[in-house]
Structure formats: structure tokens, C-alpha cells
Write a structure and sequence with these properties.
The protein has 159 residues and is mainly alpha-helical. Helix content is 89%, strand content 0%. The termini are far apart. This is Poly(3-hydroxyalkanoate) polymerase subunit PhaE.
């Protein structure tokens, strides 16, 4: 008894060989169509919106748990770079001042003298403002007394 078995792979292979060109051609037509491009664009837009929403939610979650995010580290890095550039600028200025022969102690003395002069000017301005206020106050009191005197004389005339 010999059994004749049909090879299942040969059936599958013949089915594939017949269907593959037809399927490839229909898929190619579908991929070139305007409808597919519109649907693909909408799908891409939806995915982008979901990603943005997800990023916002993660940012809020990190903020609520007081965990620094990538944005926080990036901002910190920018601040450090700015600080480094300012320190470098100060270092360069100090080096140029040293080359000019100006001593740091001389600069400190000059700054102290300027500070004292500014304090004196500020004090003079405050004194002048107080003196102006007191003159204005005495003028107001005198005018108030004069106005009160006028009303008293007007009342006497009315009687």
C-alpha cells in the first residue's frame, strides 16, 4: 500500500506565485492614490498630536513630583554657559587691568571713594527733599490758616 500524499507546500507555492503579482500591483495602485496620501497624512497628524499630548502629561507628572525634566537640565546648561562666559569676561578684564598697571587694591579704594560720594549725594538729596516737604507743609498750614481767617471774616460780615 503506497500512499500518495499531496505536498502542502507545493499548493502554497503555486498560490503565492499566482497571487503575488496581482497583490503587488493592487498595493502599488493603492499607495499611489490620493485617498491613501490623505489617510496617511491624517494618521501622521493624529500620531503627532498624541505625542505632544503625551509629552505635556509627562512634563506635568515630572513637575508634580518635583523631578527635573530634560528642559530643566537644558536651561541649567544654558545658564552655566552664560555664567562661564561672564566669568571669562571678568577674567579678561582683570588681566587687561593688570597689564595696564592698575592694582586691584587701587580699584577697591576708588570704588570705596565713589561709594562714599554716592552716599553723600543721596543724603543731600534726602535732606533737600525733607526741607522741601517741610516748606510745603508750612505753606499749606499758612494757606489753611488764611482760608480759615477768610471764612471767619466772611461769617462776621454776614452777621
Amino acid at each position: 500500500m503506497s500512499a500518495n500524499y499531496v505536498d502542502p507546500f507545493s499548493v502554497w507555492k503555486s498560490f503565492y506565485n499566482e497571487m503575488e503579482p496581482k497583490l503587488a500591483q493592487s498595493m502599488h495602485k493603492m499607495l499611489e492614490s490620493e485617498e491613501y496620501a490623505a489617510a496617511s497624512g491624517q494618521l501622521l497628524n493624529a500620531a503627532l498630536q498624541m505625542e505632544q499630548y503625551y509629552a505635556k502629561m509627562v512634563e506635568k507628572l515630572l513637575e508634580n513630583y518635583k523631578i527635573p525634566s530634560i528642559k530643566d537640565f537644558a536651561r541649567l546648561g544654558e545658564l552655566l554657559v552664560g555664567l562661564e562666559s561672564k566669568v571669562d569676561l571678568i577674567d579678561e578684564r582683570l588681566a587687561s587691568l593688570e597689564k595696564q598697571g592698575i592694582e586691584v587694591s587701587d580699584l577697591k579704594d576708588q570704588i570705596t571713594a565713589l561709594s562714599n560720594q554716592l552716599e553723600m549725594v543721596n543724603q543731600n538729596l534726602l535732606d533737600a527733599a525733607k526741607a522741601g516737604d517741610s516748606k510745603e507743609g508750612s505753606n499749606r498750614q499758612r494757606k489753611s490758616r488764611e482760608a480759615k481767617g477768610n471764612t471767619d471774616t466772611n461769617e462776621e460780615k454776614a452777621e
